[in-house]
Write a structure and sequence with these properties.
It contains 17 helices and 22 strands.
């Protein structure tokens, strides 16, 4: 009896202890699992209602942003550390090994604001604090130490936080992804390594050309094998001057090409002032400045109605793109283009200023734009012989000019009386008459600079009434209308196609952005319904407002330009229309041809094949966006080649956003981390990657 009572008492005293142990075991099983998931811990779910609440964000690095030093010789490859290439599983628990030179600014990725400048000593309330200041440099040793420390922190962050998504720990081992062995690009003689554009700087192919008469050396000649290398940074490169100040001034060290200053010193294009290039807004034909020139055009042709009737402009031989830069004030988006190095780095200057621009030449091949796309085409002393080779250059302008659109030509044959100018003018009269362009106005401004404006017809009646069928009308049997690597037409593209399309002018801007469409893709015969176009627009509107602008670690106030690498109908660009930025819409050549719709909406873009390099200088875009393209793209070219081109185009400290399946994201993520990008996976659908200032050593390949 006594023993029984004692045991009963002991049992009563142990009961709370047993209960506590059981509770401890249960709680431990919940919170100490190797792979806790959002479904197990529902309070970890994203607040976004647009996507599944069971998805979450997985930031790769938790290290704070650090000040950005200017790059030095070290960041262009002076350090001697090296590492062998290898293979790692996608679900690796550590970031790639730190090699080469990683400066402190490699850790900018997770902050939603730009890190402070190394010279930012002014009081935040001082108006002068926002004015760019010359940088003062950072010792290579300090930069190396800071960069290494930042990447060590990243390794810990990857291990802990990727386990939360189930990529590490007890997750199934996926097939390894071979990481590249990164090295700096080797360029040909006469090519500036920091300005390397693979398809325009193929010295070997250019030397083998049989003729240069038609600017063949300025056309695309892509190298084989495709590059898997990185372009170095200019010494003392720093983040660009922000818009809108960048329209008038840029850092000298970012585009260190002074020849144009001397060459155009009397034409007010560009000046050097201390650490800056300054752009006064002048030009060869803009004696009183580009603003006065734009007003003059509107005075002699009121129907042009900048920003209402006229929305898209093509500026041929654009110089430093001041014409397009100032038209932005009028709600006009201008595609400014010129060949590489006709005037040293003119397109690079334009893009550094934050103005839309593109490298191209009217040589032997068509421009990468659809038929009937631009409202206005402009040429101010663009040095193109329009009547050469049977008039093919002007026939190409006729192809891309919208029926009823205007061609504005400001050149010496319009107003000078020398015999050569007279001959050129008479040749132009004959050619424009043969293609039924009507001379709307010919006038001179107060500086005696002459301008003539032609208009393309809106019907085919004039073509059919010509006495001589020269040039002949193009027929549908002439082959594909795709302009990609296609020779220039020697025939005249009609104003109205046999199907009846081509002669309608879009409604006024900004209503034009949401105008109704119904058209057929030229290269796939796919009918694009209005319902499909509207659905894409609404989807992007929701995604951008709910996710892109609110959940991405992107400082949108510092984004001046965006490249949408798979633009569809332009829905992503239209969703950003209220932001102070512009979007280059790229339609891949192996995708349905939606580019005509993009232009009809009052946006701009080009065709391109992303297995080749894009016609732009390095470090010219703030954000690259790719939506559901990478999977099909990597069936034709290697993922490393795609990553190398993304890295070439993207500015340091800026962002690449990939929307795709989680399987594709897991393939791209380690490749970008091998480039020392800071990556974040959001909702198992988006990869947001921030490029740093890291470059590999020039002494050997780096993984």
């Amino acid at each position: 009896m006594a023993i029984s009572s004692a045991l009963s008492f002991l049992s009563d005293r142990k009961r709370p202890i047993v209960v506590a142990v059981i509770l401890f075991i249960v709680l431990s099983s919940l919170f100490l699992l190797p792979n806790p998931t959002p479904s197990a811990l529902p309070f970890f779910s994203s607040p976004s209602s647009h996507l599944s609440s069971s998805e979450t964000s997985i930031p790769v690095s938790s290290n704070a942003s650090t000040p950005e030093p200017p790059t030095s010789a070290a960041s262009n490859g002076v350090s001697s550390s090296s590492s062998a290439a290898g293979s790692v599983p996608v679900s690796a628990d550590a970031s790639p090994p730190v090699t080469g030179t990683a400066v402190a600014s490699d850790g900018v990725g997770d902050s939603t604001t730009d890190p402070p400048r190394p010279d930012a000593t002014a009081d935040p309330g001082d108006a002068e604090a926002d004015v760019p200041q010359p940088d003062h440099g950072t010792s290579p040793a300090a930069a190396e130490e800071s960069g290494s420390a930042g990447n060590n922190e990243t390794a810990a962050g990857v291990s802990a936080e990727r386990d939360a998504e189930g990529q590490g720990g007890g997750a199934a081992v996926e097939e390894p992804v071979e990481l590249p062995s990164w090295e700096l690009c080797e360029v040909g003689k006469g090519v500036v390594a920091a300005d390397y554009i693979p398809c325009l700087d193929n010295v070997k192919a250019i030397k083998g050309l049989k003729s240069l008469r038609h600017m063949e050396h300025r056309e695309r000649h892509c190298p084989e094998p495709r590059p898997r290398c990185l372009v170095p940074l200019p010494e003392r490169y720093r983040r660009p001057v922000p818009w809108p100040r960048s329209r008038d001034m840029i850092w000298y060290n970012n585009v260190p090409h002074p020849k144009l200053v001397e060459y155009k010193k009397d034409q007010n294009w560009i000046r050097k002032s201390d650490n800056y290039f300054v752009f006064p807004g002048g030009g060869t034909q803009f004696k009183n400045g580009v603003t006065a020139y734009i007003r003059f055009i509107e005075q002699i042709l009121p129907n042009i109605q900048w920003g209402i009737h006229t929305r898209t402009v093509l500026d041929v031989g654009c110089g430093v793109a001041s014409f397009g830069g100032y038209l932005l004030d009028r709600n006009v988006i201008t595609m400014s283009f010129a060949p590489k190095d006709e005037h040293e780095a003119q397109i690079q200057f334009a893009l550094e200023r934050g103005i839309p621009a593109f490298l191209a030449v009217i040589g032997t091949q068509k421009l990468p734009f659809p038929d009937n796309s631009f409202d206005v085409i402009h040429c101010a002393r663009c040095r193109v012989h329009w009547y050469a080779d049977g008039g093919k250059p002007l026939l190409e302008l006729n192809r891309v000019l919208r029926p009823g659109g205007y061609y504005i030509w400001s050149a010496t044959p319009v107003y000078r009386k020398e015999q050569r100018d007279k001959d050129d003018w008479n040749a132009m009269i004959a050619l424009t008459k043969s293609i039924c362009w009507r001379t709307v106005v010919r006038s001179r401004d107060i500086n005696k600079i002459g301008v003539v404006i032609y208009q393309k017809p809106t019907s085919n009646s004039c073509y059919l009434m010509r006495k001589n069928n020269e040039p002949p009308l193009c027929s549908e049997s002439d082959g594909s209308r795709s302009p990609w690597y296609t020779p220039l037409d020697s025939c005249l593209f009609p104003a109205v196609s046999s199907s009846g399309g081509g002669n309608s002018w879009p409604i006024s801007w900004p209503e034009r952005l949401n105008m109704k469409h119904s058209t057929t893709s030229k290269n796939t015969s796919i009918q694009f319904s209005q319902e499909k176009i509207d659905s894409e627009a609404n989807n992007w509107k929701d995604l951008v407002s709910e996710v892109y602008l609110n959940e991405f670690a992107v400082n949108w106030s510092s984004v001046r330009n965006v490249m949408d690498m798979n633009a569809g109908f332009g829905g992503f660009a239209s969703s950003l229309i209220q932001q102070p930025l512009w979007v280059m819409n790229v339609v891949p050549v192996d995708q349905p041809d939606t580019l005509p719709i993009i232009f009809d909406r009052g946006l701009i873009g080009v065709y391109h094949d992303w297995c080749e390099s894009f016609n732009t200088y390095p470090r010219t875009y703030d954000l690259l966006h790719m939506s559901y393209l990478l999977g099909s793209l990597t069936k034709r070219c290697h993922i490393t080649e795609v990553a190398a081109e993304i890295d070439r185009i993207l500015r340091p400290g800026r962002w690449f956003v990939l929307q795709d399946t989680i399987e594709v994201i897991r393939k791209m993520d380690p490749v970008l981390r091998s480039l020392h990008y800071k990556t974040t996976i959001i909702k198992r659908q988006f990869l947001v990657a921030t490029k740093g200032f890291w470059r590999p050593d020039s002494t050997g390949p780096q993984s």
